[in-house]
Amino acid sequence: MIMPQLALIPAFPLAAFAILILAGRHLGRWSAWLAIVALAAALGLTLTIWHAPFAGQPLIFQWTWLIGSQPWLLGLRVDGLSWIMLVVVTSIGSLIACYSTGYMHGDPRYSRFFAYFSLFCAAMLGLALADNLLLLFICWELMGLCSYLLISFWFEKPSAAAAGRKAFLTTRVGDVGLFAGILCLAWVPHGSLQFAALPVVAQQVATPTLTLISLLIFMGAVGKSAQFPLHVWLPDAMEGPTPVSALIHAATMVAAGVYLIARTFPLFTPASLHVVLTIGLITHVFAGTIALTMTDIKRVLAYSTLSQLGLMVVAMGIGAWPAAMFHLVTHAYFKALLFLAAGSVIHATHEQELSKLGGLARTMPITSTVFLIASLSMSGLVGLSGFWSKDAILLAARHYAPWLFWVLLGGAGMTTAYIARLYLRCFYGAAAPHHGHAPHESPAIMSLPLVALAVGAALVGWIGSPGFSPFFTLLGVHEAHGFDLPVAALSTLALAVGSTVAWIVGFRRRNLLPAFLRPAGLALYRLAAHKYYVDELYQRLLIHPVWALGGLLSTFDRVVVDGAVNGSGRVGAWASEVQAWIDREILDRCVNAIGTTTRGLGRVMRWIQTGMVQHYLLMAVIAVVVLAVTVR
Amino acid sequence: MLLTGLLLLPLIGLLVILALPKTAVTAIRSVALLATGAVLLLSILLLGAFRSEVAAMQFVAQLPWIPQLNVSYHVGIDGISLPMVLLTAILSFLACLGSFSIHERHKEYFALYLLLVIGMMGTFLALDLFLFYIFWELVLVPMYFLIGIWGGGRREYSAFKFFVYTLAGSLAMLLAILALYWHASPRTFDMVELARQGHAIPLALQRLLFLGFFLGFAVKVPVFPFHTWLPDAHVDAPTPGSVLLAGVLLKMGGYGFFRLAYPFCPDAAWEFRWVLAALGAINIVYGAFVALAQTDFKKLVAYSSVSHMGFVLLGLASFTPEGMQGALLQMFSHGLLTGGMFLLVGVLYDRTHTRELSAFGGLGARVPRYAGLLIFFSLGSLGLPGLSGFVAEFLTLVGAFQVPEIRWPTVLSLIGIVLAAAYMLKVIQLVLLGPLNKKWQALQDLTLREWLSLAPLVVLVLLIGIYPLGLLHVQEASLQQLIYHVTGR
Amino acid sequence: MAVRTLVLLAEALFCLGVYGLLTRRHAVGLLLSIELILNAAALNFVLFSRVFDQVAAQAFTLFIIALAACEAVVGLAIIIRLTRTAQTIYADEATVLKG
Amino acid sequence: MNTAAVPLAILSALVLVGALWVVTLHNLFRAALSLGLVFLGIAGLFICLGAEFLALVQLLIYVGAILVLIIFAIMLTNSWQRETLPASRQRLPAALAALALFALLARATWVLAWPAQIPGGATRLKDLGLVLVKTLVLPFEVISLIFVVVVVGAIAVAAPRKGQS
After folding, report:
1. pLDDT digits (tens, 9 = 90+) for D66-98
2. Total domains in the fold of chain C
3. N vs C: which end of chain B shows fewer Cβ within 10 Å?
4. Min Cα separation A575/chain C (Å)
């Protein structure tokens, strides 16, 4: 079914961006409402077309963008997968936009914030709607730009400026991989960039090529979803305003990598899926351990995001892409909520160091409650959203390999541990002394979205729960998994263990390790607290060499290449010196002789040339006479 | 007739300026602006009247000039030259607006400026090699004086280097032109006729001819290792000079490949495509690396030009519709983007009299409009989708990637994309972000005139980035014909 | 005989004019000499008009008189100008043309 | 010698003497007056040749206008007060050249066969007028154009410039 009005969905926020960037200064606080209304309109439009994805009929709108030996089409497509993304983005987006009106209140670049915010939403919606890799890539890059602009939003802080640049460049490395993947995919025989054509392509193309293409595409996902080798930008991205962290760096953009894998899943071969699984697993475990040691609220949440994204990628790696998508959705809600609640804390106390926080449960009851709900949901308390999605992944893992199941179960325990540690130290214990006014609950415009998201974080998982699963229907998967009691029991056990450990070690500060293991434990702790020194490693191995190479080539350019030019110029000058000598000593003599003669003649002529008219006339008359006499 | 108008209008402006007294600065400026504005209008009319489905030359005008040598005044345009003509018209108008910040010797400046416009236009319009060469060389003279008189820094050195370097390249081209002339039967400078005879030239001679043309154009493009005049000339040229230098003069080199080197020596061009591709990749990566290390704003942008022009070479080497479209579009887009960048550098230099990147910092808070535009053009340069640079680079890479012989250079040049982001973000970070440097507390934001000279570029960059089809349709037929001419496919 | 005499008279007049043109140092003197030359020509025209019975020749005399008037006016204007700017009216003192 | 030759001879002598004075007299004012003598002589000759109209014009324009103009100019430039002009340094070569020129011309004139007598009769004014507006209409018009140019030019040349008194 062809529907041009699909273009309206991203067009609303895009229009809001255009208005805000051009005239935002004059709109004042109305700029926020413009962004919210635009997003709400996109949400409304998305909801009105619900029947098509459920009926399994995709809505399509295509147009020609480029021409060459073949026309290059861009297109929009709404099917179950993209519809889910649309709903997630627009619903969370509009709630976060409401929240931001309070959070960003009084900022000198208030309208600019909402401009970028709208552009991001437009790009994200475009990405979800894209029916081919080209448009997806375009939106992908635009999101990267918005991420950059929003991370560096408070650019007066050098750390924020540096973080934005780091984010952009790191993801760009991944993007080049994705770009190369697109290039390959476009020119393998029978290649096509249309998602709908990918299953056919996968059958036609040789497996090694396919592995290469899928790995290149996965590289893009690694960059955007901050998977292991390219994860370094995400924790730094917490320099941005907290609503941005919530929307872009937790709920939507970073999940786009997972969405990309889901979209291009037919291309992935077993070999490349192994790579995906490995990367995801490394990220999951490794980020989880770092999250245990971080002392900054937002950084804990950032590493938690990394870990959860790793979990989704693991699910992709074992082929359970519907489960991964399911976790993406539930994660979007509870992680956005966690960030917003953390933002509420930061807004109230102007503090994000765990050591300087505590006992906020009394002064900020709403924030405390929603934070608890989100934490429990993420930890997988039975009945809450996170439980259902994590359960689906655990089930799939058990089918894949038992060892993986146990590792993921450990990961689940770790998840509970770090989030419980965060919650307890933030909201319980002795209230930290505060400078100035006492912390207070955030205004209604901020707490209402919190409550709304809390409802989502608690209940949204039910759409994928066994027995009632419109979610999987939307994705066109009918092998609905049943409720597996042992798995549920084990995951609850992991939750209990994790939270107990967090209570004892993280909150009460008891060291449970036997004495002989303590040095090793401390070393491990240090390693994790320094993020395994990955940043430092990159600095040494990558960034310094690149800059050094730039400097080297620049010197080479100046000294060698330009030196060659100037050198040949100098040789030319020298040659002309020699020639000049010859000219001066030999040729000039001859020339001078001619010159002297001429000058002598000239002197004679000059005597004639008196400048007096009568003189000339006399000459003329004499000449006439002479001519008349001589010429017959 | 229309095309002759493109040449006559600036000429009339030039004569009027020469007749005006030195002191009538306003009148001189208005005449120059009117002349370039009229050229712009005329070229837009041309675009309207252009029939994009026709591959052959259009609006042809031919008058015998030196019949003894079979030289004629012969002008015409096709889908390859029309974008270049448009680019020249747009940039000369906007740079003329930007020239209002010139403070001394107005009469000479604007007279030379219009002479430069005539030269550039003529190069893109000429269909007679003799005429082409005259216009090609005509460009050098005013540019030499623009850099040498109104420039800064080591302007005499740079102007001289520019002049001699380019002239040396042109001599190689002149040799090739003369060889072509003597080889053609009947002897002619008619480019259309010479192109028709292209395949008839023996391959050995074609190689030599191609080498000659290559040297001439490689200096102009510029191709590594013939590029070192470019940073010096750019840095020391006055702002409008840099704009035209980067925006139009470099394109003359690329255009030369399309119009001369490829049609006249098609077999040699086909044979040497891997050389072009390799040099293109080197340009992209090398230029980007060197740009990364620069501390002078203008020099950085100059090296970014080296990098970006590499894409033109890469696209040219592909002989695929995508690649050629990309190369031509890259020339257009790079003209707009670099033109904008240089105008912005000039704005900053006018106010602060420094171009050291480290001397700035935190300007984003002080001059938000300027910051917005600088970010816009930087993003365009680093190839952000939605802006013109991306379309061009995408087409180029897609086109080049499908040719097995030049696949590895293409893959190599992907590094350039990351590096482009690195040096452009470096600029943004050093100039706009961070705490405000106290020295620039009273910096003034863009004035209306500066805003007017930049806004059209913004619109065009966006337009091409979002709807490139318009320009691609214009180019399509002629490029298809060229590809068919060279490859027979 | 009379015709030849008159032609000779005109020639003498012409040569006297040339002599004056070559020797007069005063600019007005030059002008006077030129008038002599013109009158010599006029005399010839009228004479030949009678001899060959051509009325047109007389018309040319008229033209000569008219041109003489013009020449006198312009010459005098130049002389006045010269006295004002060069402070000299002697033709051989105005040597701007000297190489 | 017939009677008709007498006035011719007198007039010729008048003209010659006047012309000689014009080019030799040191006093410019007197030279100008001698030029008047020449004009009168020429006018007389015109009458003898049957061109009465031209004689009238000659008197009116030359004597009445041009000569007066010249005398005015002499007076304006104060040249008449200087009694003697410094002699030109090229009088001798000039005289020789002029004589040579005359010899040349006279020789050429001498060898030609001229009609013995001047034909009689007078030119009808109507014929002259017709020639002017028919055959010679173009030069006639050109002359008028030249007049305009001369008037404008003379004013432009002689008018005092800005900054000069």
Report:
1. 888 888 878 777 655 554 555 667 788 888 889
2. 1
3. N
4. 40
> For residues B379 and B371, what is the distance between their CA atoms, to the nearest angstrom?
12
Q: In chain D, which stretches have pLDDT less than 50?
A: 1, 83, 165
Q: Do B418 and A184 touch (CB under 8 A)?
A: no
Burial D56-77 (b: 16+ CB within 10 A, else e): ebbbebbbeebbebbbebbeeb
Structural contact between residues A120 and A364, judged by C-beta atoms closer than 8 angstroms: no
What CATH number does the domain located at D1-86 have?
1.20.120.1200
Which residues 89-118 of D have a C-beta within 8 angstroms of C? Answer: 90-91, 93-95, 97-99, 101-102, 105-106, 109-110, 114-118
Q: What angle do CA A306, A311, A314 make, to 5 degrees?
A: 125
Give B338's pLDDT tier (boundaries 50, 70, 90): very high
Residue of chain C minimizing CA distance to D82: C26
Q: How far is A620 from chain C (nearest CA, A)?
A: 11
* Touching subunits for chain D (3+ Cβ pairs under 8 A): A, C
CATH code for the domain in which residue C27 is found: 1.10.287.3510
| H helix count then E strand count, chain B | 22, 2
| Per-residue CA distances from A346 to A342, B63, B114, B250, B278 (Å) | 6, 78, 61, 53, 54
In a domain, C46, yes or no: yes
Contact A610 C23 (CB under 8 A): no
- Which tens digits make up the pLDDT trace of A474-490? 887 766 566 778 888 88
Mutating which of A607, A608, A621, A632 best tests the D interface, going by the most D Cβ atoms within 10 A?
Answer: A621
Q: Tell me if C38 is assigned to some domain.
A: yes
Task: Determine the 3-state secondary structure of B355 from DSSP.
Answer: coil
> How distant is the Cα of C53 from the closest Cα of chain A, in angstroms?
30
Determine the residue of chain A that is closest to B165 in CA distance: A565
Mean pLDDT of chain C: 82
Residue C99 lies in a domain: no
Query: Would you kindly state where each structural domain of chain B is located, as residue ranges?
Result: 272-489
Residue C53 lies in a domain: yes
Q: Please give the Cα distance from B378 to B372 (Å, whole number).
A: 10
d(CA A283, CA A535): 15
Answer positive or negative: Cα dihedral of D86, D88, D92, D98.
negative
pLDDT at A453: 87
Query: How many contacts does A have with D, using Cβ atoms within 8 A?
Result: 19
List the structure tokens of A102. Answer: 């309070």
Q: Does the ipTM exceed 0.90?
A: no
- C-beta atoms of D90 and A615 within 8 A: yes
> Max Cα separation, chain C?
52
* D84: number of Cβ within 10 Å: 7
Burial B244-256 (b: 16+ CB within 10 A, else e): bbbbbbbbbbbbb
Which tokens hold the place of B489? Answer: 């496919």
Cβ contact A29:A130 at 8 Å: no
CA distance B265 to B217: 14
Residue ranges making up the domain that contains C26: 3-92
Q: At what angle do helices B297-318 and B273-292 cross, to 10 degrees?
A: 160
Q: Do A66 and B227 touch (CB under 8 A)?
A: no
Q: Do D104 and A618 touch (CB under 8 A)?
A: no
Nearest chain D residue (CA) to A617: D94
Length of chain C (residues): 99
**What are the helix and strand counts (H, E) for chain A?**
28, 2
Residue C58 and residue D114: Cβ atoms within 8 Å?
A: no
DSSP letters, D58-89, are: IIIIIIIIIIHHHHHHHHHTTGGG---PPPPT
**What are the structural domain ranges in chain D?**
1-86, 124-165
What is this structure's pTM?
0.76
Element (H, E) at B233: helix B229-236
